[in-house]
Structure of TonB C-terminal domain-containing protein:
Amino acid sequence: MPSPTGEASWRPVAAPGMVRYRLAMGQVSSGATPIRRVTPIYPARQLAACPPPQDVQVSLIVDQAGKVSEVRVPDEAQAGASRRPFIAAARAAALQWRFNPLQVSRWAADAEGNSHVVDEETKPFSRGYAFRFECRAGRPSVSTEASGAAHP
């Protein structure tokens, strides 16, 4: 019998209380899009038990270069021993993700009405994701959902 393997997908989630950048008139943001995602691996020791689905919500803290510098799990301190391997799997995968940096550009028009970039700044941001780990008939499945907006 072949060994079970995990599959992954993702979906966005908006974390409560997350603050968004406010752009001033003439400012435009771009980037903050994923360019590399690593699939979480279903914890092998959990396969035999085939537990109910596990959802792990995270906030990815992304630095100015587009690298995930931190993965925050809001309910991690309260997590039981059976949930901790799922949190660890989500964190290990998410720390390998990469994003296009978040770029904020300020545009202005010259005396002739032509627009041009006055200055640009790369900013850190955060993004919420939900990872779902499921075992169906002894086979693991992992899915992930991502929030669509950049946050400071």
Observations:
- The chain has a mean pLDDT of 81.
- Helices lie at 44-47, 84-94.
- The chain has one domain: 11-146.
